[in-house]
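Marked as duplicate of an earlier ticket. Keeping the data here for the record.
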Amino acid sequence: MKSIIIKELKLSKKGLIIWCIVTLVTILYGLAEYPMVSQYSDSIMDSMNSMPRIVVIMFGMEGLSMDTSLDYHLIMFYWICLITFIHAVYIGVTILSRDQRDKTFEFIYSKPYKRNEIITAKILVGVINIFVLAFVSWIGSIFTIMVIDGTATGVINGKLVIELITITIIGMVLTQVVFLSIGLLLAASLNTHNAALKSGFLFVLVTYVIGIVIEYVGNIDYLNFLSPFRYFIGTEVVNNGINIIYVLIGTLITVTSVYLTYALFNRKDLL
């Protein structure tokens, strides 16, 4: 199984580097804009307040004022999550269906490995990929607050900013795992890589829209379970910590999806 992991890591290395660059560019772009944003924050907030509330929500600025580095991190965190969640679904689909897409399945599945061992190795590589991207996001976010505050030991409401950033990234990772498991399930249940990938991106889009609708309506939080985007919202995690209920919901979705992935992929005709 070790050789499969090494092979899959090599195959996914280039794509992972590209996703990391996209994430870092997003963070650096936000950081480059900060001097202007901070200088004209009042005007920007007035402009945002004059826009329809649905637009403010779509920009990830609901309830934020940009007065502190933490506020700015939470705005950037919204966009980082969009990137990492799309990546999680993408890697879940690709890691499992790459051999069919590239027509190399005869090579790997003719080796003396059980199909379960191959699936396990691929899932581990998928987990490594999302953890690497999350680590890059964490480092980039810490760099952002260090540049803005001039220190990594800034305190807001009696808590270290770096600790608050870390807990938001932990929530992001938990959601990444959910999206990864959905991608794996789609790859196992659908016949082609393209079909699974399109379904994965559609799933991200639909759950994103559901999340926006829930936020906009404002009094239907009991429907949060319908959208992983709502499990660990940055502002909620900063103010109240990680909600164990959504940890359990995410775990249930992940375990169920992975179990079905093994069951369906073992019966799948790769031809």
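See parent ticket for discussion. The chain has one domain: 2-266.
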